[in-house]
Amino acid sequence: MSSSIIELRNVSKTYSTAAGDFTALINVNMNILAGEFLGIVGKSGAGKSTLLNMINGVDQLTSGEVIVRADNENISIHTMSEDARASWRGKKMGVVYQSFQLLPMLTLIDNITLPMDLSDNYKPRESKERAMQLLQLMELEEHAYKLPAFISGGQQQRVAIARALANDPPILVADEPTGSLDSITADHIFEVFEHLITDQGKTIVMVTHDVGLVSRFSRSLTIADGELLSEAVPDTKLNQGRKK
Amino acid sequence: MRPRWRKVLHDLIDNKARTLLVVLSIAVGVFSIGVISGAYQIISNDMSVSYAANHPANVELRMANYNTDVLTSIHNAQGIGEAEGRRVNNFRVRAQGSDQWVALDVVALESFSKNQVNLLAPVSGAVEAGKDEILLEKDALKKLNATVGENLTLELSDGTLKELKLVGIVQDVSTGAGDFLAPPFAYIVMKTLPTLRQPELFNRAYVTVAEGQDDIANIREVGTALKDRLDKNGTAVSRTRFSETHKHPLADTVNAILGILLALGILIVFLSSSLIANTLSALLSQHLRHIGVIKLVGGRNKQVFAMYLTLIMAFGVLALLIAVPLGGQGAYGLALFIANKLRFNLLGYRIVPMALMIQVAVGLLVPLVAGLAPVISGSRITVLRALSGDLAGDENKPQAGKPDRLPWFDYMLVRVTRILAMRGIHIPRPFIISLRNTFRRRGRLMLTLFTLTMGGAIFIAVFNVRVTLHDYIGAIGSYFRADVTVDFDKTYRLSEVQKFGLQVDGVERVEAWQFIGTELLYPDGAVADNLNMLAPPANSKLVNPIIVAGRWIRADDVRKFAVSEAILNFFPDLKPGDSMYLKIKGRTEVWEVIGIFKFVGREGILAYTPFEYSSQVLNLTNRSSSYRFVTTQHDRATQDLMAERLDHFFRGAGFKVRQAESGLASLDTASESLDTLVVFLLIMAILTAIVGAMGLTGTMGMNVLERTREIGIMRAIGADDRAVMRTVIAEGFVIGAMSFGLAIILSIPFTYLLSTIVSLAVFETPIDVVFTYMGYAIWFGLILVLSVVASILPARNAARLTIREVLAYE
To answer: Is residue B682 part of a domain?
Structure first.
């Protein structure tokens, strides 16, 4: 049995708006195991993106705790300052969004090199070599010096994944990464994720509204109205591999 | 290059319009401050160096005729360094083939080679004039179209014409320095004087002191002692002038004017900094997503801060590349212009290190300071807010915890439009949207309004200052209301001059005026200053004084005088009824001050006493050498024609005419000098207006960019290109109109401030402010055009966007 890499304890999130307070998450407790491909599934407004933003530290929780155990460190990430969290995230957790969030003025290789440049984990020459390896992994090496606007949406999402892997983080979180892609391209993205789990031992947490994708995860949690409702562990290729 | 710096480079070059706007905003301020500070440095150094290099006299004495024995005694007097005698006579001079007479002061030197004081610098041709030859001061060429080698015709007082050969052009930066109204000079050798029927005697002495040449107290002391000694020995001194060797007589005035320009330059920097702050704040808003991404992938606050700080520094460096060379050229150009106007030389083109340092400091620090707040807040933003673009929203958006009601402006707008609609007046809906848009980003609106309002207020104030100065010159003209003044070389009976004068067509009236050259004394007998006392008939209508205290002269006044307020510089507590010591014709007398009137301080102290009494003082009953003529028409052209006609007529009748001058001639010269100053002020005002216009263009561009989605929605529900453009242009128009209203208010204190500073610098007295509709009208037209032009480009960009593009903008 794998150990828990991320643990959420009584996580709640309430937003104050002009229309009144709105609770997006209610006492969420969960464990994410190292090396699993966890899917969080729910309808629009269910609280799945909020939950993901609690896990990656992009948003501040109202109460509760998120503990990340990566690289022999045991960190309650919301006790860190926003600035320290950004630096931590750059090294320990890759983030992928539906809208890719690539910097449009930088070439693909520069977009991937950027996290390494900011974290100073790699020397400039090494970071370039690593970025090229990641592009090769994503089968995009021939587009290395193109701007994001000159490649397709699926290719942009693969660049975003490559960027998320730049500092070799143990965890990847992805918010609807296939939401704006056609089914063939989305399938290709899933293949990349499965490869990262099986070959590189990464832990991936992915949010989606598409219940049809449940079978692709090693485990899935259903969320509605800010509460976790059910858990499913399908008999997938990934789980078969894990059982062996 | 590391990716983060590559991003900075792209931010700099990808959006060229925005980079240009920021760079130009900085460059305008750097340029203005560079021009003024550079010119200030060049002038303050070169003015004194150039002036001192010509060995200027410390004491200038205007005297009765004297010979070389007196000159030797001056030379031998205590504390005297060099002394040079000269003879100065005013002649009308004509170039070959021209019928245009020009009045010149012809200066006769004993020897050109022994010239030691007020040195002449060669310009072209010979540096010395022999017998019956003449040299021209280079400024004379502006009025006299003559070339070296030709003969100049001089008209003597009896009408005889004499020709002298022009052998060279020289420059004399010392003689007449400080006197805006001094006629141009020409130089001859004393041996030529008999040709011009003048005695070979001196009437001026130019003296330097042996020690303390930059100590005005010492110069005054030595000069006063010399004057007393000459008076005692029977050589009457009518006027003395003291000046330091290393200080040009107009240095204080020039410094004061440059001070005003510097203040405006600093204001431009200040305004451009608000424009920079506006643009950088918008840039940071537009870059929120980028900042969010950088932080998402591990970027820390200080890294984001460093990136945007570098971007700002790059803007500053680009601005310096443009503004420093232009500012250097502009500084030298301005210095050269002033030097030419005031007749001194510059030491050559150079970059002034101090001005360069000021420019570099302004170019780097101003954007840094202006951009610091937006960069700090931008770098501290949370990833979530950055990625959601939360800050790009408007300031009217309902906030959590705030009462659930419409913002005040929207509430007022709804109320007003409803009230108007009930009365059948329907404001077009797009215009209401424009109005609301104007007030969305209130911080940005304030900064834009601030720059536009300041630009407008200064622009309007400069026009008011111009009219104020001209009005004052006009008021000064009320002391010289004669259409033509004819001075003779000897005195004539009033009845005789009247008899002849009234025969000339167009002459209505003739008045005899007298002049008493006096000195104002301190109670201990030391000379305070010269006092030019004019003596018109007490009932003369040709003087219309602006009385500050006391009264004007009366026919029965004896030993009484009205005096200009410049006297207060020497006797600050003086009031009507006080007694003053005056030195008249070598005698010390006690006169009573009956009134104080307003007049230009720079030309010294002016006083009036009635002709009826001056006739007794001068022992010239009903006689004078100076006559004022009133003609039927009073315009400059008629005056010039009448001056020519009277000159010709009196000479023909055997009178010894020295000169005939139209009343407006000197006033026009003074007005021209003031116009030059006004042009500089206007240039600064236009620069502030440019900064304001750039601010508005930037604001409109940013507003449109931030509302791209909204424009898309408008287009999706049927707004055509014209409707979109109209909404944007109306918004620019509303901002322009608001700034105009504010500029009207702010222009009032600005007018008072500028007028007071300029009048104190130029006239040495505060003057009454006059307002003109001209500046308001021009600025109103200009602001309308500017606001529409500033909105057209963003409006066109908005209209060109397709619905798909704008809705996909996020």
So the answer is: yes
